[in-house]
């Protein structure tokens, strides 16, 4: 799909310098620009590329002053980075603008769906499912019985949504995501483990995005709840009856054990382990590879380590930790001096 410099400028509320009728059909990095592509310059580090790029259109900041001629058509905007991000969003929307029901997809007659829905080949929609408007279900997606899906949500290939789950508006689930699998519930029984039925569900509020191959387990009773605006990276496991507050973000390979409550606006790094049945306050930041074994009750606290504690204390402790070999050597030397002193006879008075 082609756009002219004039059309792009109108979308971004910018000003064209050069030919307003030139056309582009792709986006590119400034150092990799080719004819027919659009790029941007926001970081001064890349300024040299603006003079040599083969890109047809370059988005620049209003305050950029070229030191020599630029052959590309320029579009001046208030913030080149944010303007390019807006174009990426528009481009992404166009790329994903699918609708219709493809052959070999299945939707149970008891289920319903809104307008402009897309069902890809070999997708399966179970009984009594409610799909909102503009929902996109890519091939090989499974949505189980009695699920409710809000408007504008997207399920990429291979997503599995178990029965009875409720998903809000404008959510995105990347390939391999599993929502509503059984929680890890087993009770000791004469040397074995007896499975405890997991009969709850998962509730995911609006604007949640979950990365590839992440899992959110259904509750034993009640609901596992992911609140509005939460972003989960790839390869994350959320246990049963967990609750995650609004706008919290969690990086890859983190695991959260059952019944833990995480507050709003938290930032949790990669490979963090969080035990079950604890509470983490709002605004807490957890450094990567930390282990959280107790509740964090102070809002906005920053922690690191395994077990994790306040990051300032951690940094001071780590300085001492790195010096342990040197300190051990000094202690051994002092022990020898003390031993020599005790072996030295004292003169009589």
Named at the architecture level, the CATH assignment of the largest domain is: 3 Solenoid
Note the beta-strand portion: 25-35%
Gap between N and C termini, in Å? 104 Å
Q: Could you say what the CATH topology of the largest domain is called?
A: UDP N-Acetylglucosamine Acyltransferase, domain 1
User: Any idea what the shape is?
Assistant: flat
Report the CATH C-level class of the largest domain: Mainly Beta
Main beta sheet strand tally, sense and closure = 12 strands, mixed
Rounded mean pLDDT is 93
For the record, the count of structural domains works out to 2
Instruction: List how many beta strands DSSP finds.
Output: 40
Please, what is the CATH homologous superfamily of the largest domain? Hexapeptide repeat proteins
Helix content: 10-25%
Computed over alpha carbons, the radius of gyration is 29 Å
Q: How would you write the strand order of the largest sheet?
A: 8-11-14-17-20-25-28-31-34-37-39-40
What does this structure look like?
With 349 residues, the chain is an alpha/beta fold. The chain has 2 domains: 93 residues, Udp-n-acetylmuramoylalanyl-d-glutamate--2,6- Diaminopimelate Ligase, Chain: A, domain 1 (3-Layer(aba) Sandwich), CATH 3.40.1390; 213 residues, Hexapeptide repeat proteins (UDP N-Acetylglucosamine Acyltransferase, domain 1). The chain contains 5 helices and 40 strands. The strands form 6 sheets. Strands 8-11-14-17-20-25-28-31-34-37-39-40 form a 12-stranded mixed beta sheet. The protein has a 10-stranded parallel beta sheet with strand order 9-12-15-18-21-26-29-32-35-38, with no helix packed on it. It has a 9-stranded parallel beta sheet with strand order 10-13-16-19-24-27-30-33-36, with no helix packed on it. A hairpin with a 2-residue loop joins strand 39 and strand 40. It starts with a strand and ends in a 6-residue tail after the last helix. The relative contact order is 0.05.
């Amino acid at each position: 799909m082609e756009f002219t410099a004039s059309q792009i400028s109108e979308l971004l509320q910018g000003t064209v310098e050069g030919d307003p009728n030139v056309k582009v059909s792709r986006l590119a990095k400034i150092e990799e620009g080719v004819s027919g592509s659009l790029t941007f310059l926001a970081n001064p580090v890349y300024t040299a590329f603006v003079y040599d790029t083969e890109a047809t259109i370059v988005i620049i900041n209003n305050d950029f002053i070229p030191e020599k001629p630029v052959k590309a058509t320029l579009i001046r905007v208030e913030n080149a980075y944010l303007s390019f991000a807006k174009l990426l969003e528009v481009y992404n929307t166009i790329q994903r603008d699918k609708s219709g029901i493809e052959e070999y997809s299945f939707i149970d007659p008891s289920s319903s769906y809104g307008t402009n829905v897309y069902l890809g080949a070999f997708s399966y929609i179970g009984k009594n499912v409610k799909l909102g408007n503009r929902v996109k279900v890519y091939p090989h997606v499974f949505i189980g019985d009695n699920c409710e899906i809000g408007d504008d949500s997207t399920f990429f290939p291979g997503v599995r949504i178990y029965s009875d789950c409720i998903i809000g508006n404008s959510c995105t689930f990347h390939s391999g995501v599993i929502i509503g699998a059984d929680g890890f519930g087993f009770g000791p029984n004469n040397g074995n483990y007896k499975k405890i039925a997991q009969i709850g569900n998962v509730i995911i509020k609006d604007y949640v995005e979950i990365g590839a191959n992440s899992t959110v387990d259904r509750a034993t009773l009640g609901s596992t709840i992911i609140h509005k605006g939460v972003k989960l990276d790839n390869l994350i496991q959320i246990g049963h009856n967990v609750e995650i507050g609004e706008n919290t973000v969690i990086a890859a390979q983190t695991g959260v054990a059952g019944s833990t409550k995480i507050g709003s606006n938290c930032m949790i790094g990669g490979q963090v382990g969080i035990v079950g049945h604890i509470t983490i306050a709002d605004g807490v930041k957890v450094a990567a590879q930390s282990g959280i074994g107790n509740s964090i009750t102070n809002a906005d606290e920053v922690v690191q380590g395994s077990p994790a504690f306040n990051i300032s204390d951690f940094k001071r402790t780590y300085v001492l930790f790195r010096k342990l070999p040197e300190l051990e050597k000094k202690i051994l030397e002092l022990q020898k001096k003390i031993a020599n002193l005790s072996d030295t006879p004292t003169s009589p008075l």
